[in-house]
Amino acid sequence: MDEPKKIALALPSIEATAVDYLAEVVNQNWVTSGGPTGTKFEKQLQEFLQTEREVVALNSGTAALHLALKLAGVQRDDFVLCQTMSFVASANPIDYLGAIPVFIDSEKSTYNLAPEYVKEAIKWCLKQNKKPAALVAVHSFGIPCQVKEIARLCKDYEIPLIEDAAEALGSKYKNQPCGLFGDYGMLSFNGNKIITTGGGGALICKDTQEAEEARHLSRQAKSTAIGFEHDAVGFNYAMPGLNAALGLSQLQTLTERIQKKRELYQFYQECFAEIEEIEVLSVQNEEYYANYWLTVIRFTGSNSTKNPEQFQAFLAKKGIESRFPWKPLHLQEIYDEQHYFGAQNAETLWKTGLCLPSGCGLIKEDLNRIQQAINAYFSA
Q1: Where do the domains of the chain lie, and which CATH numbers do they carry?
Q2: Angle 226-227-228 from CA coordinates, rounded to 5°
Q3: Residue 264: which region, alpha, beta or left (left: phi > 0; alpha: psi -120 to 50)?
Q4: Which residues are catalytic?
Q5: Where do the catalytic residues lie (predicted)?
Q6: pTM value?
Q7: Which of the residues 246, 343, 348, 363 has the least number of beta carbons within 10 Å of its own beta carbon?
């Protein structure tokens, strides 16, 4: 008897119509960066976000964050506040610039950036006579952070706010999209994101002049139309036309993808409704709207014989992929000498959490297998 297919954590979902979009740029012979396809992708993203802010298509979310930090004026030895519960790409661009990450703990509701620890970190930096050069706030797992409180702190202390909305395309606070609250926002279109360009990202700038500077830097800072004159050290960060074409095809179904993710979250809520030792990470209240890019559960029973390691192994035997949350950045060996403010909230999520399959391509048969596995594990 054949083994059932593996249920992956978050495979890309690519419609057949993508072939038509890709064929068009191939036929135009504009598969590299520049050209009309990238511009069209930027405009459609802008329309989806319902914003006048400029959107700059790039080859990764990491590139977008790097350029945001540069535009914010971050320099060597500056302090940059950064959420510890995040993928390492939220911090690495700080190090690219020779700046110093100052890591901050999560709050206990959504496990995003805790405003009280942000304030504590700012005051510490000021005592060192170094006001933070920027703050990177992440909307982890597609759940919006307490962006109103964080934006207020940044405004009060005149600190540029960079929203890492890599996972939060379609998430909102008070009906305003994530990525539009700060001075800069960034998105990711990696293969596991809610839409993909294969590899890619975007920088959102509220200032048109800064958006043009970002485009300039992303194309090696070439200053003249003829010849090879460069007025700055630039980067090879522009999004190729092939990637933008795939992104255009994905944008056509973005609303449906967000709905699918939210339906998967509701499915897991129902699966765990009667299991006391499990909580499903959720928005704080109705003012927040999450795309639930990944549904994350947390084991809350301190004396329970059930734990995420055993559950992951059990699921793996059933052909179901799961993943632990990120190891907090302040615990990473590469950043073990950086400053940290907070308690152990992020560490708690890392040790007690598990990310469950959340791909838009999951079908009823997959969900039945997942539900059966959940029931079998927690009834044993």
Answers
A1: 18-251 (3.40.640.10), 254-379 (3.90.1150.10)
A2: 130
A3: alpha
A4: 193
A5: 193 (proton acceptor)
A6: 0.95
A7: 363
